[in-house]
């Protein structure tokens, strides 16, 4: 409307872990099978069926997938993506690494601190000043992992992928779930006379938001992004005094982003899921390798854009040797592909006309909860791969939470369907929707309890109803004003403002002020005072309707388009309000003296 060539880019990612969990729950509820029972291909087919049913039809996104593969390959070739054994957040129920985003606000619990050690073989950290010591578990704590790396300690993992004790935990406890084993260890210490008592110790416990299982710190071989240097690129764009490239709104989040970038850790981007972008890496197993398991040798990985490309590179790396290749079964973190959105949506890695015209974009609008997960990573990847920041401004809007202080989420059942507000729905209907969902029993009961106590939900539904009523008032006001125009009215070239009645001059001056201050407020109520219908008065009414609707259109596109289409048509007017010119100040209409007099 203002004459700019505008591109609006809405986005929806594949919601890797959330989608897979939903489908796994559905399979278990309806067929009593797991994804492993039906195999990868059938499970992915089930995923597509579910996604198309609940998320609308998704077209083949080969271009987006190509961008993800290209980004991985380029970053790997530059040494910015690597594979290593490091401590990750591990969900024993889902059996995958998860990001910090999937961990709920950690719950405070009271646990006993056992004073006597569990194993014969332990590492101790000694303080030469206070003559105290603490045991170290380098394979189960990120800070102690760094100590272990520095001192070349042995890394002893005591858990299987599903959270049971392995052979390193002792034959007596092998196969026990982790919490059962804790009690068994305590009893074993008592039986041997090694138990020296316990004391209460309040601590935080990470809970996975998808499975409600306790998150364990586990040593795993995963793919990581080395974030140190690309974070410096992003920092320069945010904090530079002379060449600041990105403005963060609200400004308090700018300091949060800066602190996160300054203290950034390497980013684990691999997930042990089946739904998502497959890691474009193949493992080479040589005929004479002593160990044949995938990943046994870290230098046997080859990264490429296709299997054919990988075979050619493997022949060069292992010249004259017989080998087989197998693609890594893992997929990439959803936020890796989401972080490429400003690039991939414009056709990158090709330099398309869209990329030339619209990169970098002007404004990103999103919730403040994804500042680190998405915004920061878009900035880092955009600057590294696109050569510039992906956007000039970031507007972070507030979030809507439920009565328990939790973000509204379909997977928790605490959302409000806009269509239910528009069409209305009974409490029984709300309960029925929950009964057909994939919610766990505890989440289902909590959601139903909230539906019975809607007055406790932070979102005030009556406010939304008031907005709808305001739209009704706008409809009635415009139709009332149009009756004043009469059936014979046709807009024509505007007369000199000085020749108009004072009331018309006053109205135009007030309207000018609304345009200048961008105050989208209906002044139509004043029109009811115009008891006489002369040409000047009818022109003023038409101008009010036309400009008022155009002012409101960006915020209320549908109702303003409908009302505007019913206005008497002026010569040369556009076919749609959407492509009409956005109102600007007409200096000749401004008359402060008349405003004061009237």
Automatic annotation (TrEMBL):
Gene3D superfamilies: HUPs, Isoleucyl-tRNA Synthetase, Domain 1. Residues 1-62, 64-430 form the Aminoacyl-tRNA synthetase class Ia domain. Pfam families: Anticodon_1 (PF08264), tRNA-synt_1 (PF00133). Keywords: Aminoacyl-tRNA synthetase, ATP-binding, Cytoplasm, Ligase, Nucleotide-binding, Protein biosynthesis. GO terms for molecular function: aminoacyl-tRNA deacylase activity; ATP binding; valine-tRNA ligase activity. The keyword Thylakoid does not apply. GO terms for biological process: valyl-tRNA aminoacylation. This is valine--tRNA ligase. It comes from Ensete ventricosum.
């Amino acid at each position: 409307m203002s004459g700019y060539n505008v591109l609006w880019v809405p986005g929806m990612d594949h919601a890797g872990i959330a989608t897979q969990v939903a489908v796994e729950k559905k399979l278990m509820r309806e067929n009593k099978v797991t994804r492993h029972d039906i195999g990868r291909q059938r499970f992915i087919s089930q995923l597509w069926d579910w996604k198309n049913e609940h998320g609308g039809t998704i077209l083949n996104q080969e271009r987006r997938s190509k961008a993800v593969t290209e980004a991985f390959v380029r970053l790997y070739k530059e040494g910015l993506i690597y594979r290593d054994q490091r401590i990750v957040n591990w969900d024993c129920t889902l059996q995958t690494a998860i990001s910090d985003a999937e961990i709920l606000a950690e719950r405070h619990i009271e646990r006993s601190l056992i004073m006597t050690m569990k194993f014969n073989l332990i590492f101790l950290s000694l303080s030469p000043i206070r003559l105290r010591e603490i045991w170290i578990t380098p394979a189960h704590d990120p800070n102690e992992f760094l100590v272990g790396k520095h001192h070349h300690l042995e890394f002893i993992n005591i858990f299987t992928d599903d959270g049971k004790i392995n052979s390193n935990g002792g034959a007596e406890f092998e196969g026990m779930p982790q919490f059962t084993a804790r009690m068994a260890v305590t009893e074993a210490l008592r039986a041997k006379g090694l138990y020296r008592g316990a004391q209460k110790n309040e601590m935080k416990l990470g809970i996975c938001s998808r499975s409600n299982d306790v998150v364990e710190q586990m040593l795993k071989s995963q793919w990581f992004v080395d974030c140190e240097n690309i974070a410096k690129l992003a920092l320069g764009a945010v904090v530079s005094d002379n060449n600041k490239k990105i403005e963060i709104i609200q400004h308090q989040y700018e300091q949060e982003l800066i602190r996160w970038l300054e203290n950034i850790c390497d980013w684990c981007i691999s997930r042990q899921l089946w739904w998502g972008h497959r890691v474009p890496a193949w493992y080479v197993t040589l005929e004479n390798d002593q160990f044949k398991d995938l990943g046994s040798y870290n230098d046997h990985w080859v990264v490429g854009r296709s299997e054919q490309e990988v075979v050619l590179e493997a022949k060069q790396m292992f010249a004259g040797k017989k080998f087989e290749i197998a693609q890594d079964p893992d997929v990439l973190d959803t936020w890796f592909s989401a972080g490429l959105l400003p690039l991939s949506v414009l056709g990158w890695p090709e330099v398309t006309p869209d990329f030339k015209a619209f990169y970098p974009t002007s404004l990103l609008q999103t919730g403040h909860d994804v500042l680190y997960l998405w915004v920061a990573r878009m900035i880092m990847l955009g600057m590294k791969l696109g050569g510039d920041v992906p956007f000039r401004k970031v507007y972070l809007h507030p979030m809507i939470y439920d009565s328990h202080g939790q973000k509204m989420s379909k997977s928790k059942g605490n959302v409000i369907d806009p269509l239910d507000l528009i069409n209305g729905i009974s409490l029984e209907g709300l309960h029925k929707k929950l009964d057909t969902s994939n919610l766990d029993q505890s989440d289902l009961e909590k959601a139903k309890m909230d539906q019975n106590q809607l007055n406790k939900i932070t979102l005030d539904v009556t406010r939304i109803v008031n907005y709808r009523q305001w739209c009704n008032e706008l409809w009635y006001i415009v139709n009332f004003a149009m009756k004043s125009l009469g059936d014979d009215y046709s807009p024509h070239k505007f007369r000199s403002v000085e020749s108009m009645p004072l009331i018309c001059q006053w109205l135009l001056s007030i309207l000018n002020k609304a345009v200048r201050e961008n105050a989208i407020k209906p002044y139509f109520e004043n029109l009811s005072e115009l008891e006489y219908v002369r040409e000047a008065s009818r022109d003023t009414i038409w101008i009010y309707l036309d400009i008022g609707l155009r002012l409101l259109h960006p915020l209320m596109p549908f109702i303003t388009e409908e009302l505007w289409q019913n206005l008497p048509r002026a010569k040369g007017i556009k076919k749609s309000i959407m492509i009409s010119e956005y109102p600007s100040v007409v200096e000749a209409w401004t008359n402060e003296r008349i405003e004061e007099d009237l």
